[in-house]
Structures are given as C-alpha cells and as structure tokens.
Design a protein that fits this description.
Helix 4 links the parallel strand 5 and strand 6. This protein has a six-stranded mixed β-sheet with strand order 3-2-1-4-5-6. Strands 7-8-9 form a three-stranded antiparallel β-sheet. By secondary structure, the chain is of the alpha/beta class. The protein is built from eight helices and nine strands. It binds 3-hydroxy-5-(hydroxymethyl)-2-methylisonicotinaldehyde.
Length: 239
C-alpha cells in the first residue's frame, strides 16, 4: 500500500540560482520524503556571489497563496525564510494564528550570504514581537542572534539562552559563521536547557543556502512527527 508522505510548506523567497530560498527548501523537503508546498514571498535575481535585484510580492498575494494551501491540504510543518518586509510579516502572522498546532520553524534571515541586506531593522522587531511567539523553533546564525538580543557576544550558548528567555521560544543558534574546525549549533529550549550539535566543517566552493536547507530539514523531520532534539540531530545528516 502506498502511504502519502507528510506535507511540508515553505514561505520564502525565490533564489534563481536555486541554492537558497524556496528552491533549496523544496529539494530538501523532497530528499526527506515529504511533499513540499511553496508560498513565494518575493523573487531574488542572484548567484552565490552577488544579488542583482529583488522584489517582494504584494501582501494580498502572499495571503492568497497561503490561505488556498491551508484550506486545501493537511500541512504537517511550516518553515519561513526570507519575508522581505514588515508588511509581509504582519500578513503572515494574521494568516498563521488560526493554525497554532502546525509546528513552525522560523529562519530569521535578513541578508544573503554574499552580504546584501534585504530587510530593515523594523523587520526583525516585527518578527520578534509577532512571529516568534508562534514558533516551535527559530534558527538564527551568529549575526542574527546578536541582533536579536542587541549583543556583541560570540558565545553561542549565552546568546541562545538570552534569546530563549527574551522571546520564550526554542532557539538553535547556528555556529557555521565561525572559523572552528567543527561547526557547532547550540539549542536552548524555552525551558532553559542547552544542547550542542557538532559536526566537522565541510569546505567547498560557493556555498549559500545552508541556513535555508537546515531549517527546511528540521521542518521536514518535524512533519514526520519526531521530537525536536532528535529532529535537529537528524536534520544535520542525510537519511
Ligand atoms: O541564503 C539566504 C537566502 C534565503 N532566501 C532567499 C535568498 C537567500 C540568499 O540570497 O535569496 C530568497
């Protein structure tokens, strides 16, 4: 008997070079045996080395994509990536509030790996105030974590603990943006427990979209019904 795979949904931007954004998410959802749905928040013309231009969709178009999917499919997990502006964050919060039981993973990305910033400071505040309270997990990198708690610290577990307390959510601070031989991600639970996940760093050319891929993998594993710490360990290796 053929069993239907769980359904995962990404709400993120399009990366035409397909290493990041919805393209990365969809490939990851597929690799982890889920059926991926996509709500496009905007379109970015880019390669791993440069962002040429970008445009967010109108809020109503984001809302319509989301509501027709949520009214039709049984979605088992959601991830958000680049949301471009505060208006889209506000629309999304309104649309997701009626669905509190679907686990939500938030990648609070505001800039491309090549350095271009897509968002302003009100964006991060809107995410923190309104979207984070709906999250099962948020996954900032080092600089996003520093911005979230207004700190220059590079101590990942101190940052994770502070953000978990500030926002009352589970948080995984990613250690990819350090020079260590091992990349260590630090999980702080909303109850204050700390857990570290360490893997040898993979060197290679032109990586971008690693954060998109990780948060999509976590959402896919949550869709399979696994508990969070098992999910995070599993999301860092292929099946
Ligand atoms: O790598 C982060 C990222 C996420 N989402 C979109 C992007 C990028 C990088 O540029 O374009 C749509």
């Amino acid at each position: 008997l053929l069993k239907s795979p769980p359904i995962t949904l990404t709400i993120a931007g399009s990366d035409c070079s397909a290493g990041a954004g919805v393209q990365a998410d969809l490939k990851t959802f597929q690799a982890l045996q889920t059926y991926g749905l996509t709500v496009i928040s905007g379109v970015v013309a880019e390669t791993p080395n440069e962002v040429v231009s970008w445009k967010a969709v109108p809020a109503i178009l984001l809302e319509d994509q989301l509501s027709c999917l949520l009214n039709t499919y049984h979605v088992s997990a959601i991830k958000t990536g680049l949301l471009f502006n505060t208006e889209l964050v506000t629309s999304l919060v309104k649309a997701l509030k009626p669905h509190p039981t679907i686990p939500l993973v938030i990648d609070p990305i505001g800039a491309a790996s090549s350095g271009t910033r897509f968002t302003d400071s009100s964006y991060l505040k809107a995410m923190g105030d309104h979207l984070f309270p709906l999250a099962a997990l948020i996954t900032p990198n080092l600089s996003e974590a520093q911005a979230l708690c207004n700190s220059g610290s590079t101590d990942l577990s101190a940052l994770a603990t502070e953000i978990a307390q500030l926002y009352g959510t589970n948080i995984l601070v990613k250690g990819g943006h350090t020079d260590d031989e091992y990349a260590t991600d630090t999980l702080a639970s909303n109850k204050g427990a700390i857990q570290e996940f360490s893997l040898p760093r993979i060197n290679g050319p032109d990586f971008h979209g690693t954060g998109c891929t990780l948060s999509a993998a976590i959402a896919a594993q949550l869709a399979h019904g696994k508990p969070l710490s098992v999910v995070i360990r599993g999301a860092t290796s292929m099946p």
